[in-house]
Amino acid sequence: MTDGTTTHPPATAEHVSAEHATAVVRRHHWFVRLTHWINVVALGVMIGSGLQIFNAYPRFNRRGASFCCYPFAGHAVPHWATFGAWLAGARNWHFAMMWLFVVNGLAYVAFIWLHGEWRDLVPRHGDARDAWEMTKFYLFVRRRHPHQGKHNALQKFTYTAIPILAVLAVITGLAIWKPVTLGWLTTALGGFALARFWHFLVMVALVVLSLVHVFMVISVDPYSLRSIVTGKYNPNRAPELRDARPFYHLFTRARRSPDATT
Protein backbone atom coordinates (compact mmCIF):
# COMPACT_ATOMS: atom_id res chain seq x y z
CA MET A 1 0.00 0.00 0.00
CA THR A 2 1.42 3.39 -0.95
CA ASP A 3 0.81 6.90 0.34
CA GLY A 4 0.40 8.40 -3.12
CA THR A 5 3.90 9.86 -3.35
CA THR A 6 6.39 9.01 -6.04
CA THR A 7 9.70 7.50 -5.05
CA HIS A 8 12.69 8.71 -7.06
CA PRO A 9 15.77 6.55 -7.50
CA PRO A 10 18.98 7.87 -5.95
CA ALA A 11 21.00 10.15 -8.21
CA THR A 12 23.92 8.43 -9.89
CA ALA A 13 27.15 10.03 -11.08
CA GLU A 14 25.86 9.77 -14.63
CA HIS A 15 22.61 11.47 -13.63
CA VAL A 16 24.46 14.32 -11.91
CA SER A 17 26.73 14.78 -14.94
CA ALA A 18 23.74 14.87 -17.27
CA GLU A 19 22.03 17.39 -15.01
CA HIS A 20 25.10 19.63 -15.10
CA ALA A 21 25.30 19.32 -18.86
CA THR A 22 21.68 20.34 -19.40
CA ALA A 23 21.69 23.20 -16.86
CA VAL A 24 23.40 25.64 -19.22
CA VAL A 25 21.58 28.96 -19.52
CA ARG A 26 22.05 32.11 -21.59
CA ARG A 27 23.71 34.67 -19.35
CA HIS A 28 25.03 37.50 -21.56
CA HIS A 29 23.44 38.95 -24.68
CA TRP A 30 25.72 39.06 -27.73
CA PHE A 31 25.70 42.86 -27.65
CA VAL A 32 26.97 42.91 -24.06
CA ARG A 33 29.74 40.48 -24.99
CA LEU A 34 30.71 42.51 -28.06
CA THR A 35 30.91 45.83 -26.19
CA HIS A 36 32.84 44.14 -23.37
CA TRP A 37 35.63 42.94 -25.67
CA ILE A 38 35.72 46.20 -27.62
CA ASN A 39 36.15 47.93 -24.29
CA VAL A 40 39.00 45.60 -23.33
CA VAL A 41 40.89 46.50 -26.51
CA ALA A 42 40.10 50.23 -26.38
CA LEU A 43 40.96 50.60 -22.69
CA GLY A 44 44.14 48.56 -23.03
CA VAL A 45 45.42 50.65 -25.94
CA MET A 46 44.40 53.90 -24.23
CA ILE A 47 46.30 52.98 -21.07
CA GLY A 48 49.43 51.90 -22.93
CA SER A 49 49.44 54.91 -25.25
CA GLY A 50 48.65 57.24 -22.36
CA LEU A 51 51.71 55.98 -20.48
CA GLN A 52 53.80 56.54 -23.62
CA ILE A 53 52.53 60.13 -23.74
CA PHE A 54 53.29 60.51 -20.04
CA ASN A 55 56.87 59.35 -20.60
CA ALA A 56 57.49 62.38 -22.82
CA TYR A 57 57.37 64.41 -19.59
CA PRO A 58 57.18 62.00 -16.62
CA ARG A 59 56.31 64.56 -13.96
CA PHE A 60 53.32 66.76 -13.09
CA ASN A 61 55.04 69.96 -12.00
CA ARG A 62 56.40 72.60 -14.33
CA ARG A 63 60.18 72.74 -14.63
CA GLY A 64 61.61 74.38 -11.56
CA ALA A 65 58.38 73.93 -9.59
CA SER A 66 57.42 71.28 -7.06
CA PHE A 67 54.51 68.89 -6.87
CA CYS A 68 53.28 67.44 -3.60
CA CYS A 69 51.81 64.13 -4.57
CA TYR A 70 54.00 62.23 -7.02
CA PRO A 71 57.30 60.90 -5.61
CA PHE A 72 58.43 59.31 -8.89
CA ALA A 73 58.89 62.55 -10.87
CA GLY A 74 61.42 62.14 -13.65
CA HIS A 75 61.16 58.35 -13.73
CA ALA A 76 59.64 57.03 -16.95
CA VAL A 77 57.16 54.16 -16.99
CA PRO A 78 58.80 50.89 -18.19
CA HIS A 79 58.74 50.54 -21.97
CA TRP A 80 56.88 47.20 -21.82
CA ALA A 81 53.85 48.97 -20.28
CA THR A 82 53.58 51.54 -23.09
CA PHE A 83 52.02 51.48 -26.55
CA GLY A 84 52.60 53.62 -29.62
CA ALA A 85 56.43 53.57 -29.86
CA TRP A 86 56.80 57.37 -29.77
CA LEU A 87 54.89 60.50 -28.72
CA ALA A 88 53.05 61.28 -31.97
CA GLY A 89 52.18 57.63 -32.58
CA ALA A 90 50.92 57.24 -29.03
CA ARG A 91 48.77 60.38 -29.35
CA ASN A 92 47.19 59.08 -32.57
CA TRP A 93 46.36 55.75 -30.94
CA HIS A 94 45.12 57.42 -27.77
CA PHE A 95 42.66 59.73 -29.52
CA ALA A 96 41.45 57.02 -31.91
CA MET A 97 40.71 54.67 -29.02
CA MET A 98 39.15 57.51 -27.04
CA TRP A 99 36.37 57.90 -29.61
CA LEU A 100 35.87 54.13 -29.80
CA PHE A 101 35.78 53.97 -25.99
CA VAL A 102 33.17 56.74 -25.76
CA VAL A 103 30.90 55.46 -28.55
CA ASN A 104 31.13 51.87 -27.30
CA GLY A 105 30.40 52.96 -23.72
CA LEU A 106 27.36 54.97 -24.74
CA ALA A 107 26.06 52.05 -26.81
CA TYR A 108 26.52 49.68 -23.86
CA VAL A 109 24.79 51.98 -21.37
CA ALA A 110 21.89 52.54 -23.78
CA PHE A 111 21.51 48.80 -24.32
CA ILE A 112 21.47 47.76 -20.65
CA TRP A 113 19.06 50.61 -19.90
CA LEU A 114 16.61 49.69 -22.65
CA HIS A 115 16.83 45.95 -21.90
CA GLY A 116 16.64 46.39 -18.12
CA GLU A 117 19.98 44.67 -17.46
CA TRP A 118 21.08 47.63 -15.36
CA ARG A 119 18.96 46.14 -12.55
CA ASP A 120 21.52 43.33 -12.19
CA LEU A 121 24.44 45.77 -12.02
CA VAL A 122 23.42 48.82 -9.99
CA PRO A 123 23.67 48.50 -6.17
CA ARG A 124 20.37 48.64 -4.33
CA HIS A 125 19.14 49.01 -0.77
CA GLY A 126 20.86 46.40 1.36
CA ASP A 127 23.81 45.85 -0.99
CA ALA A 128 26.19 47.71 1.34
CA ARG A 129 25.33 45.17 4.04
CA ASP A 130 25.66 42.30 1.55
CA ALA A 131 29.04 43.63 0.41
CA TRP A 132 30.24 43.46 4.02
CA GLU A 133 28.92 39.89 4.29
CA MET A 134 30.81 38.96 1.10
CA THR A 135 33.97 40.51 2.54
CA LYS A 136 33.58 38.45 5.71
CA PHE A 137 33.06 35.34 3.60
CA TYR A 138 36.23 35.95 1.58
CA LEU A 139 38.14 36.49 4.87
CA PHE A 140 36.80 33.13 6.22
CA VAL A 141 34.91 34.95 8.97
CA ARG A 142 31.63 33.78 7.48
CA ARG A 143 31.33 30.08 6.64
CA ARG A 144 28.76 30.09 3.83
CA HIS A 145 28.57 32.17 0.68
CA PRO A 146 25.86 34.85 1.00
CA HIS A 147 22.88 34.55 -1.31
CA GLN A 148 23.25 36.52 -4.52
CA GLY A 149 21.58 37.10 -7.85
CA LYS A 150 23.44 37.30 -11.14
CA HIS A 151 26.22 39.25 -9.38
CA ASN A 152 27.17 39.59 -5.74
CA ALA A 153 27.15 42.95 -3.97
CA LEU A 154 30.90 43.54 -4.31
CA GLN A 155 30.65 42.93 -8.04
CA LYS A 156 27.80 45.42 -8.32
CA PHE A 157 29.83 48.16 -6.66
CA THR A 158 32.79 47.38 -8.93
CA TYR A 159 30.67 47.30 -12.11
CA THR A 160 29.13 50.64 -11.09
CA ALA A 161 32.47 52.25 -10.22
CA ILE A 162 34.08 51.40 -13.58
CA PRO A 163 31.62 53.45 -15.72
CA ILE A 164 31.93 56.36 -13.27
CA LEU A 165 35.71 56.22 -13.57
CA ALA A 166 35.38 56.01 -17.35
CA VAL A 167 33.37 59.25 -17.36
CA LEU A 168 35.98 60.91 -15.14
CA ALA A 169 38.71 59.69 -17.50
CA VAL A 170 36.97 61.36 -20.43
CA ILE A 171 36.33 64.61 -18.54
CA THR A 172 39.90 64.93 -17.25
CA GLY A 173 41.23 63.85 -20.65
CA LEU A 174 39.29 66.61 -22.41
CA ALA A 175 40.63 69.14 -19.90
CA ILE A 176 44.26 68.35 -20.77
CA TRP A 177 43.57 67.85 -24.48
CA LYS A 178 41.90 71.25 -24.95
CA PRO A 179 43.18 73.39 -22.03
CA VAL A 180 42.47 76.63 -23.93
CA THR A 181 39.18 75.83 -25.66
CA LEU A 182 37.92 74.13 -22.50
CA GLY A 183 39.75 76.46 -20.14
CA TRP A 184 36.80 76.60 -17.75
CA LEU A 185 36.99 72.82 -17.31
CA THR A 186 40.76 72.79 -16.84
CA THR A 187 40.46 75.58 -14.28
CA ALA A 188 37.68 73.73 -12.44
CA LEU A 189 40.01 70.74 -12.09
CA GLY A 190 42.72 72.89 -10.53
CA GLY A 191 44.72 73.84 -13.61
CA PHE A 192 46.56 71.85 -16.25
CA ALA A 193 49.02 70.12 -13.90
CA LEU A 194 46.30 68.93 -11.51
CA ALA A 195 43.95 67.94 -14.34
CA ARG A 196 46.77 65.78 -15.73
CA PHE A 197 47.30 64.29 -12.27
CA TRP A 198 43.57 63.49 -11.86
CA HIS A 199 43.64 61.84 -15.28
CA PHE A 200 46.59 59.73 -14.17
CA LEU A 201 44.89 58.71 -10.90
CA VAL A 202 41.71 57.70 -12.73
CA MET A 203 43.82 55.52 -15.03
CA VAL A 204 45.48 53.87 -12.03
CA ALA A 205 42.06 53.20 -10.46
CA LEU A 206 40.78 51.65 -13.71
CA VAL A 207 43.86 49.43 -13.94
CA VAL A 208 43.50 48.28 -10.31
CA LEU A 209 39.78 47.50 -10.63
CA SER A 210 40.35 45.70 -13.95
CA LEU A 211 43.13 43.56 -12.47
CA VAL A 212 40.99 42.73 -9.42
CA HIS A 213 38.12 41.83 -11.74
CA VAL A 214 40.30 39.49 -13.83
CA PHE A 215 41.84 37.93 -10.70
CA MET A 216 38.45 37.21 -9.13
CA VAL A 217 37.08 35.72 -12.35
CA ILE A 218 40.05 33.37 -12.68
CA SER A 219 40.33 32.47 -9.00
CA VAL A 220 36.64 32.28 -8.01
CA ASP A 221 34.46 31.73 -11.08
CA PRO A 222 36.50 30.68 -14.14
CA TYR A 223 33.33 29.10 -15.52
CA SER A 224 32.02 32.61 -16.21
CA LEU A 225 34.73 33.06 -18.88
CA ARG A 226 32.58 30.91 -21.12
CA SER A 227 29.62 33.25 -20.64
CA ILE A 228 31.49 36.36 -21.78
CA VAL A 229 32.63 34.52 -24.93
CA THR A 230 29.64 32.37 -25.90
CA GLY A 231 26.98 33.81 -23.58
CA LYS A 232 26.35 30.42 -21.94
CA TYR A 233 26.75 29.61 -18.26
CA ASN A 234 26.14 26.62 -16.02
CA PRO A 235 24.43 27.92 -12.83
CA ASN A 236 25.29 24.68 -11.05
CA ARG A 237 28.88 25.92 -11.07
CA ALA A 238 28.00 29.27 -9.48
CA PRO A 239 30.34 30.41 -6.66
CA GLU A 240 27.42 30.53 -4.23
CA LEU A 241 26.76 26.81 -4.63
CA ARG A 242 30.45 25.91 -4.32
CA ASP A 243 31.14 28.28 -1.42
CA ALA A 244 33.99 29.48 -3.61
CA ARG A 245 36.71 31.85 -2.47
CA PRO A 246 39.87 32.75 -4.42
CA PHE A 247 41.43 29.40 -5.42
CA TYR A 248 39.26 27.66 -2.81
CA HIS A 249 36.62 25.14 -3.93
CA LEU A 250 37.57 26.17 -7.45
CA PHE A 251 36.80 22.84 -9.12
CA THR A 252 34.32 21.50 -6.57
CA ARG A 253 30.82 20.60 -7.71
CA ALA A 254 27.86 22.31 -6.06
CA ARG A 255 27.93 21.59 -2.34
CA ARG A 256 24.46 22.88 -1.50
CA SER A 257 21.24 24.02 -3.07
CA PRO A 258 20.48 27.68 -3.78
CA ASP A 259 17.95 27.62 -0.93
CA ALA A 260 20.44 26.54 1.72
CA THR A 261 20.78 28.83 4.70
CA THR A 262 23.96 30.57 5.70
Strand order of the largest sheet: 1-2
Using the alpha-carbon principal axes, give the shape.
Answer: elongated
Alpha carbon gyration radius: 23 Å
Largest sheet: 2 strands, antiparallel
Helical fraction equals 55-70%
Gap from first CA to last CA: 39 Å
Beta fraction: under 5%
Structural class, from helix and strand content? mainly alpha
> What is the N-to-C order of secondary-structure elements (H for helix, E for strand)?
HEHHHHHHHEH
Strands, count? 2
Residue windows where pLDDT falls under 50 for at least 5 positions:
1-21, 258-262
How many domain regions?
2
Mean pLDDT: 87
How many H/I helical runs?
Answer: 9
What would you say this structure looks like, in words?
- It is a single chain.
- The chain is an all-alpha fold and 262 residues long.
- It folds into two domains: 27-59 and 74-120; 126-262.
- Helices cover 56% and strands 2% of the residues.
- The chain is built from nine helices and two strands, in the order αβαααααααβα.
- It has helices at 13-22, 30-55, 87-114, 127-138, 153-177, 183-188, 192-220, 224-229, 239-242; strands at 25-26, 232-233.
- A two-stranded antiparallel sheet has the order 1-2.
- α2 runs antiparallel to α3 (87-114) and α4 (127-138) crosses α5 (153-177).
- Mean pLDDT is 87; it is low at 1-21 and 258-262.
